[in-house]
Amino acid sequence: MKKSTAILLLHCPDRVGIIMEMTKFITDNQGNILYLDQSVDQIDHRFFMRVEWDLENFLIPKEKIAEYIDTLYARRYEMKFMLKFSAERPRMAIFVSKMSHCLYDLLARWKAGELDVEIPCIVSNHEDLRYVAEQFGLPYYVFSINKDWSNKREVEEAEMKLLKEHGVTFIVLARYMQIISDDMIAAYPNHIINIHHSFLPAFVGAKPYHQAYERGVKIIGATSHYVTAELDAGPIIEQDVIRITHKDTPETLVLKGKDLEKIVLSRAVKAHIDRKVLAYKNRTIIFS
Amino acid sequence: MKKSTAILLLHCPDRVGIIMEMTKFITDNQGNILYLDQSVDQIDHRFFMRVEWDLENFLIPKEKIAEYIDTLYARRYEMKFMLKFSAERPRMAIFVSKMSHCLYDLLARWKAGELDVEIPCIVSNHEDLRYVAEQFGLPYYVFSINKDWSNKREVEEAEMKLLKEHGVTFIVLARYMQIISDDMIAAYPNHIINIHHSFLPAFVGAKPYHQAYERGVKIIGATSHYVTAELDAGPIIEQDVIRITHKDTPETLVLKGKDLEKIVLSRAVKAHIDRKVLAYKNRTIIFS
Amino acid sequence: MKKSTAILLLHCPDRVGIIMEMTKFITDNQGNILYLDQSVDQIDHRFFMRVEWDLENFLIPKEKIAEYIDTLYARRYEMKFMLKFSAERPRMAIFVSKMSHCLYDLLARWKAGELDVEIPCIVSNHEDLRYVAEQFGLPYYVFSINKDWSNKREVEEAEMKLLKEHGVTFIVLARYMQIISDDMIAAYPNHIINIHHSFLPAFVGAKPYHQAYERGVKIIGATSHYVTAELDAGPIIEQDVIRITHKDTPETLVLKGKDLEKIVLSRAVKAHIDRKVLAYKNRTIIFS
Amino acid sequence: MKKSTAILLLHCPDRVGIIMEMTKFITDNQGNILYLDQSVDQIDHRFFMRVEWDLENFLIPKEKIAEYIDTLYARRYEMKFMLKFSAERPRMAIFVSKMSHCLYDLLARWKAGELDVEIPCIVSNHEDLRYVAEQFGLPYYVFSINKDWSNKREVEEAEMKLLKEHGVTFIVLARYMQIISDDMIAAYPNHIINIHHSFLPAFVGAKPYHQAYERGVKIIGATSHYVTAELDAGPIIEQDVIRITHKDTPETLVLKGKDLEKIVLSRAVKAHIDRKVLAYKNRTIIFS
To answer: How far is A89 from chain C (nearest CA, A)?
Structure first.
């Protein structure tokens, strides 16, 4: 059986002795450390750490741990931290439009047990991919948005209500071709993951493969990032690229890009589910 | 001994029978075709071709070939073509500032016989790299540009005069940290090769590694392109990338990027010297 | 509607004029050439070509084309050729064992219209992946092979019979963990595509990720190749790699490798379906 | 001015509290930790760590530190450790034969200040590259080995004597085309760095590019490793690869491979100089 663990992600101004203190806190209370990775931002003099420990013999009750960390360390070290428990699986909503490749890739991994996550619902602005949801026995909700966006606000309110009912903890935009409003972004800060089909910051916005073709680049990419209020400008979680040639057309770029998109998005989603991502300023620390 | 060959690069509207006609022209006149590569732009319906043949038994005199091609084919097919001869080695001027990595990489390859080129001169706005030129026994000219650019025009005129005296046929900007004026660009259209230390079109302009750090990208790149009037926007010849992590600082990005820059620039320069690059619109066809 | 085309793949000793002759043959008979790519092996002095043309106004009846090519060119040029028609979709059998990632990747692409192929059956030595076949409404046949291989011959005969009944034209081993016998290989020469989970020729045989871990490599790979009598030694169609670190275990290598495997296999399968692969000696020419 | 630092590389069976103990040891003695990276081998349950601290106010005298670590920790934790000081620059001998690309790459970096190393001598079995040594003002020693290897032993003794006189601390084989004898390997355990021009373990031994061509691979590589008694089988420090096509010949593979070789070798050499490599069993831990 999988161990019940606590996962602590933190960052604070870099000071001597923080690793020592935090590992002492865990081991003194009989927590067996299973994972530790840390990193220092040499420019901002900021310290980042991810530590995971077995809760089996841990002396502090699970529901008290955050309080203790807050009292004992967070204030002293001006620390920001997140405490997660392996027993609490994240609940992921997937938003899609008409292209199936990212959705299939996520669901195939989930079915194969690679993603430790619940998928309470799939949301779309189109009926097109209902059959995929049905193949996997998942509920599929369609919210049609008018061309003139006249119902955008009420649609998003209905979506938010649905997400709440389903206890959704984070959202994946798997080639969802709709702008997310600031309200929804604010409700899920650094918890909406998008895949943009370019090597950001190149080719922001619409039709990046056509932009890439016009510019004559020799390499194309895909970028997965947290959604922030500014379009395609949030903290980047993962990127990858593929070499192309002058023989490629926008159509072959779209095909080649699909492979990048699904792999890059799924890697980012897995890192998020495994609590290995820490967003700081507009960057991410990805623990190994 | 190396064979004396003719190299024909051409493009024209795509029409049936062009390959057939051109190869027939060469073989009918007893030219032995050593290389043929072609490509069709499916969007613009444009045909691109590079063909190289042995001149040994070719019936048409070398100095008449261009005329024949022009008369027989170029007008009929609305064709643009360049005719080059392997016996006429290109003459390359290298422009540098203070960083030596691209210069060393070019000169080491040249010394090893990898680049079939003459290097009549190295030009700089600083004294710093004179020792490298001296190591390789090459003339080094310094043209100091005032901070306020007050002598920019007369400096460029002196440079152009020098290039002319040395019979320079193309220019390589090997991390030359000066803007080239429109006059010089106009004098060497698609014959000035620059290396930009980013994955263009991301991070145009100054300090791209710092921009990359700020944006939090997970991959950095380098781009070699022909210089046009618009900054960092000319036809791309070659690009490459390297994966980075959140542990990188602008300083380590600079170090990692140097490896990319020199390899990407040298590949582009070699393709140009070997007459394997055809610029069309703002793209390049790179023949294999 | 998709055009009805003929696709000719050929190779022969390199001689002047073959492109000219073949393109003349097609255009003289009013075939509109849609694609032409050629390549010369400079070591073996061998010429390779792929040409595709529209059959709409072609003067030679479809069923006579092969005969004409054979009579007019194949004998004269000692040419080997394959003639295919876009109207005749290949029929692909997929063999699987217990891992679903390659199967899902192929089926998701097929469902999205990326693979121009029929899938008459999925074959396995285990029940495990029946649910995937059912999700996509495809027949799934299980042939159990005894641990001592005592029924290996009769199982393969049954499989061959099934493949024949279903008109299967080529086989994809999508992480099928069984050796294919020489008889079956002989029945489908260069028509069985395997994915091996290493960067061949490194780590032939069983448990390549464990071998990679033991050897301490810094990069792992996957290789798709045609199956020949010698294990993991057939002509390579496609390979790709990913960087790893000392922190990886055999388990994380397996996870990272799965991404490579499915992409590499699917690319190879697509190239085969699109008739863009020509096997010669133990190598492949992949037309662009 | 560069700080005077101590660098401790260690490995031992993984046990709770080692990071805590070691960092406490350093900070209690007023050492300011500048760098800390650690890693756990989850298979062998082994702990690896690199820590670097400022010696300025460190209470333990430099020459006593090793003794203290040995007494206080190494025995208790069954720890193996190396203690290095930034003030003691490694002394690198470069062995070459006839190809200049790796040598130029190393010397150009050294000249640009990228490699914190002394280069007391360049050693060769041929006169060919003396001019490169002279360009950089470095002593160049030629030791001719007879075709029948009759003087192999006495040559290596002379070389070892030379290395000793020059205080050489590690050796780089920069495309040195001679087998190193077991005696010399034993004298420099994990201190001889080789570049092999293939993606090891594929294509061990002679003419790997020809082997790669014959096998028809789609990607070639280069591998830098520590030399051990078994040919091309020592711990790998760095690898990289490049995509090739069916159009490549052994000759173009050699050209493309040279770019890989020099970059891969120089990265490995830099990691070694910076004391970021720890060899364990037949693998390496590369600290970030």
So the answer is: 20
